[in-house]
Amino acid sequence: MGDEIPEVDLLGEPYRELADPRGRPKHRVTREKRKNVSALRAAGLSRDDIALVLGVSKPTLAKYYFAELNEGVAQERARALLWLRASAEGGNVSAQKAWIRVLADGQGAPPVPRDVDPELELGKKEKALRDAKAADQGSAWGELVRH
User: Fold this and answer.
1) Span 4-29, pLDDT tens digits
2) What's the total number of domains in the chain?
3) What is the 3-state secondary structure (H, E, C) of the chain?
4) Residue 86 belongs to a domain
């Protein structure tokens, strides 16, 4: 006998390949599934509902679609704004009016920088070190510590 596969098994039944015994196949991520997760998350669906729609468990959803779950709203908003701008540039008057409204509402403006208090930026160790350095200047205790 060589490496030939027999046509029938020992009981005379037709020989067939065994099914893959390793269990459920690995989840396959596609661009379409990523877009769907992002859109569903932006629409307000919970993670449980999104997992149910995709037919996966919550851990699998979190493993493969982490960015879409956390940034889905921003991604969908950006995608819609880019489509709106492209339509406006293409000559669609309604899109041009909507784009002007978006720009007029200040939605396209960068955030205004806030005044940062340096006191809030320091941690407790840095504050203690600063206070310790300031305490030894001009006090009796500072004269004792310095010597």
Assistant:
1) 767 777 778 887 777 766 777 788 99
2) 2
3) CCCCCCCECCCCCECCCCCCCCCCCCCCCCHHHHHHHHHHHHCCCCHHHHHHHHCCCHHHHHHHCHHHHHHHHHHHHHHHHHHHHHHHHCCCHHHHHHHHHHHHCCCCCCCCCCCCCHHHHCCHHHHHHHHHHHHCCCCHHHHHHHC
4) yes
